[in-house]
Structure formats: structure tokens, C-alpha cells
Amino acid sequence: MVLDVIVMGAINMDMYVHVDDFPKYGENIQAKELDQQVGGKGSNQAVTVAKQGVNQVLIGAVGQDDFGKQILTTLNQQGVKTDAIINKEDTQTGIAVAVVDHTGENTFMVILGANMALNAEEVEEAMAPLEGKIFLLNLETSQESVLAALKMAKKKNMYIVLDPAPEGSYFEETLQYADLVTPNQQETERITGITVNNVEDAKKAAKWIADQGVSDVIVKLGSEGSVLYESKKDRFTIIEATKVKAINTVGAGDIFAGVLASELARNSDDLVHAAKIASKASALKVSRPGGQDGIPTKEELDQM
Ligand code: ATP
Ligand code: RIB
């Protein structure tokens, strides 16, 4: 069977510490609550894809610990296919601790554990039997796993969507394999050296990335929406953000990527439409509390 979307990326247990305001360095403050949710860019993207009703599989790694077991159970309940997730010995499951303030903005500290232990052979073995239309990848696993995945996806002629996140994990070799790249403002600056403060900067940076041989680029601008550049049509499209009150912006980019990939699996010819739906979906997620349980389904998006 040809899958609609194959996702590869990090799988973490997220701990959100909710506060009114970010603590100052050295300060001791009272937090409002601690919320534990399955996260990681790969797992967030895979849950998003599953909730869009297209068929998928997630490639990644967890440790043989309680968090690993809990995560697999939760992902299965969310409809994610987990047979290609590797159970790594002697490594802990990834853990991410986030401080989320009253504006919904977040700062993460991530112990990547098993995600960084994922190796090229494991990825090649996991991908060998798989065929898919869209390959969706972020950069929160080891470099060797990322490169192995990109090479396999290219060989298998899949349309490769690269979400070059987090910013610190970007490396240049990835660009040459990607058909569509979706950086946020910081990632765009890291890739291009261009500081992105507005739509004009985003257009310049998107064109710079396309000039490296990437067919399509979406530069994401948070609550300001995003800028899509399609090099074959030499066309820019401004995708407006839906106005919402932000409660928790964690994973906005993951939900954007997951819906984008799902919509492209349905119709690969209409990137503008896919980006508009992705923008709606991420705004809806941002307006909700919680993590993966706040990811909208296709039905919810259709009703919006
Ligand atoms: P993340 O917070 O997951 O790291 P990101 O930095 O990759 O996200 P952003 O640019 O913050 O990506 O957001 C991705 C998309 O989500 C935006 O292009 C926009 O469509 C939507 N979005 C993000 N924040 C908001 C917001 N406050 N209001 C409405 N839409 C938003
Ligand atoms: O993009 C959000 C994700 O990044 C979180 O779920 C967290 O696990 C971090 O890796």
C-alpha cells in the first residue's frame, strides 16, 4: 500500500510548567500547574496527520522506560501507526520541559535521549518496506538518521517536506533533498543569514532558499501568518493567520506541517490551498490549552 504521509522525527514526553510571567534569571517563582503530554515534533506531526484521516506511519525512537511505554500507548490511541518506532536499549525516552507564560509563548529545554540515538541503519530498515506520497521530516533526531531518511525518501520518489526545526539542529546538506521547506523566522535567519522582521524580508529569504534548488518554500511568521514561494510559477502568496487569542503556541509549527502534508497527499497540485488549511489548523491549536489533545481533526477544520 502507498501511504499518504510518512513522518519521521522526535518523540518526547513534554512537561509544561504554566506561569504568569517568565521567571528572571535566578528567581524562584510559583508556577500555576504542571501538565504532562506526549510531544516531540515527529509525534506532534504524526498525530496531526492521523487526525486528518489520511494513512500514515511514524518513524522515530523511544527508550525502554515508562515514558516510552506510555507514549506508544497514547500514540496508538490517537490513531498513529507505531510499528516503525524503534525501542532503544540503554537510552532514555526524550523529555521536553517547557515554561509557558500567560501569552501562550513557550521556552523549551529538551533532553533528546533516544531521538539522538536513532541511527542510519535503523532508519534504512524502517523505510525499506514503505512507499509513500509525502515524506515529512524535522531535525530533532540525529544527523545520521536525518540524512539516511532524506536519501531513502528521494530514492523512493516521495515529495519531501522539510520542517527545519529546531533552529539549532539545521545543517546545510539537508536542503538539496527537500521539495518544500517550512522554516519559522529564526530558522530562516539560520539558513539564509537574512533577518526576517516582515513580509518583504520573508519573500527575500524564501527566494534565497529556492535559489539553492528547493522548489517550494513557506516562511512562517507566527501570528503574522506565512509567505509561500512557488519557484516553478515564480509566485509569492501571502497566507494570512486566522486571528485568535493565543493560549498555548506549543507545536503551532508541527500542526502547520502535519496539515500541510496531509492536504498535499490529497491534492499535490494545490499548495496554496494546503497552506491556507494548515494556517487555520495551527491558529485553532494555538487558541486551545493543552498539547496533542488540542490538535484539530479534519471535521473540526471543515466546520471552521
Ligand atoms: P512552534 O511554536 O511550534 O515552534 P513555529 O515557530 O515553527 O511554531 P510559527 O511561525 O510560530 O511556527 O507558527 C506556524 C504557523 O502557525 C503560523 O504561520 C501561523 O499560521 C500559525 N500561528 C502561530 N501563532 C499564531 C497565533 N498567535 N495566531 C494565529 N496563528 C498562529
Ligand atoms: O514543536 C514542539 C515540540 O518541540 C514539543 O512537543 C517538544 O517536545 C519539542 O521537541
Automatic annotation (TrEMBL):
Give a yes or no for keyword Cytoplasm in this entry. yes
Any single GO molecular-function term of the entry would be: ribokinase activity
Going by the record, the broad EC class of this enzyme is transferase
Which cofactor is essential here? Answer: Mg(2+)
The UniProt note on the cofactor reads as follows: Requires a divalent cation, most likely magnesium in vivo, as an electrophilic catalyst to aid phosphoryl group transfer. It is the chelate of the metal and the nucleotide that is the actual substrate.
GO BP annotation list: D-ribose catabolic process
Q: Where does substrate bind?
A: N12, M13, D14, G40, K41, G42, S43, N44, E140, D254
Record-listed ATP binding positions: N184, K220, L221, G222, S223, E224, G225, G253, D254
UniProt keyword annotations, A-Z: ATP-binding, Carbohydrate metabolism, Cytoplasm, Kinase, Magnesium, Metal-binding, Nucleotide-binding, Potassium, Transferase
**CDD domains referenced in this protein's UniProt entry, alphabetically:** ribokinase
Pathway annotation: Carbohydrate metabolism; D-ribose degradation; D-ribose 5-phosphate from beta-D-ribopyranose: step 2/2
Which reaction(s) does the protein catalyse, per the Swiss-Prot or TrEMBL entry?
Answer: D-ribose + ATP = D-ribose 5-phosphate + ADP + H(+)
How is activity regulated here? Activated by a monovalent cation that binds near, but not in, the active site. The most likely occupant of the site in vivo is potassium. Ion binding induces a conformational change that may alter substrate affinity.
- Return the InterPro entries for the record: Carboh/pur_kinase_PfkB_CS, PfkB_dom, Ribo/fructo_kinase, Ribokinase, Ribokinase-like
* Gene Ontology CC annotation, any one: cytosol
Keyword tRNA processing tagged: no
Q: Sorted alphabetically, which SUPFAM superfamilies does this protein's record hold?
A: Ribokinase-like
Q: Where, by residue number, does K(+) bind?
A: N248, V250, K285, R288, G290
Family (UniProt): Belongs to the carbohydrate kinase pfkB family.
Name the HAMAP family on file: Ribokinase
Protein name per the record? Ribokinase
* High-level lineage: Bacteria, Bacillati, Bacillota, Bacilli, Lactobacillales
